[in-house]
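Allow me, if you will, to draw on your knowledge of protein folds for a short while. I am sending you one protein, given as its amino acid sequence and as whole-number tokens for its backbone shapes. Kindly check, if you would, that the fold set down in the tokens agrees with what the sequence suggests. The record follows directly beneath this note:
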Amino acid sequence: MKLAFSTLGVPGLPITDVLALATAHGYHGVELRAHPEEPVHPGLTPAQRADTAAGFKAAGVEILGLAGYARVAAPGEDGPVLTEIRALLDLARDLGAPFVRVFPGGGTGQSPEEADATAARRLGTAAEYAADLGVRILLETHDSHRTGADAIRILGLVGHRQVGALWDVMHTWLGGEQPAESYAALSPHLGYVQVKDIASADDTTPLPLGAGVLPLAECVEVLSRHAWDGWLCWEYEKHWYAGAAALPALLSPGREHLAQLLNESA
């Protein structure tokens, strides 16, 4: 498995500094938070996109994916959601990123069936555009569909190879799902896995990997047992928790912890 970290952990950091962190601490790739607050977002000019892609290539670091914020199950018209997804897909194509992350984002006024159908309809439409660009859309286990069992209801309706799953191990755990259950549901569609650690279900402030309660060893073990060889991406949510420790000093210990788990599960 290859290791990456998300720029959610280093809010606003220039890409040159992000690349320096990745190379200094032994990470193969980076997940880019694609938001106007960050250096990389759909508003970049063609020249800025080319410069960003060239910087990653020169550093030998891969762009794992773009973490977008489109909510595919959200109530409302399809048009704005599809426009947002297409902008992310265009950016991913220009940067050479294989994946774009979307959220479920179902509303409280919807029935589960309505939310599933809305998400599947939009993802099915966006999948055709994604196929033309060679980019894959990944539905994250999150908010209204936080478990693998929830996400598979949507993915099963879509049935398109350009639409897959992003397994956020915190949300499946918070949803009461065991790692083996999450993997069984998501494995036919799995793009990559987001790892993290927290103190408890009531305190989701990010912690160094291995310092909290999330079943990271079990997650890595089930992936290894099934010979899964994709990406593990550390999503350290510093952006949302200003009081959390700074990520840069944690990157090397985090990589070493993941390497230890991989060795133990081999």
